[in-house]
Amino acid sequence: MSMDEIQVQVEPEAEDSPTKVLICVNQSSIKGYPYPSLSCVDAFEWTLKKLVKRSSKHLFKLCFLHVEVPDEDGFDDTDSLYASPDDFKDLKHREKIRGLHLLEIFIRRCHEIGVPCEGWIRKGDPKEAICREVKKIHPDILIVGSRGLGPVQRIFVGTVSEYISKHADCPVLVIKRKVEDTPEDPVDD
Question: What predicted TM-score, i.e. pTM, was given to this entire model?
Fold first, then answer.
């Protein structure tokens, strides 16, 4: 079979079907609850300014995903090693509320400017959870922010954006943080 004989079959999309954009959001480690991280705010703002322009709002649907990372030992928010079972229930409830407040920031902004959107929370390792969601919802593009970690920090911390760029089943756009927004330690996002 020659190159001229290769045919690619693309499923036809409804002409009025909006472009589905999945944006991953997380909480800030320096500002604390309920502020979003600098990198996800940059990714969101870039998406609004460069992709979803005023005249084309109806052509896009923004989907916000927040991945809740499970606390390995369950003691991050407890003061005592002698925590009761109710303390752990409270921790799980607080994390869910924090995630919902985070999503609310982005969803409220979209509603103010008239951009269709939805958001949800998943639990697990962010890299794997994001790739699972991509397989499940089939976005047209995945947009994530980047903290701008240096080579040494990447070894110890790892980067979600690097992993999903290689493993996600859709195009991935990584928005780098603005130089002026970079804290002394990029891990402090």
Answer: 0.76
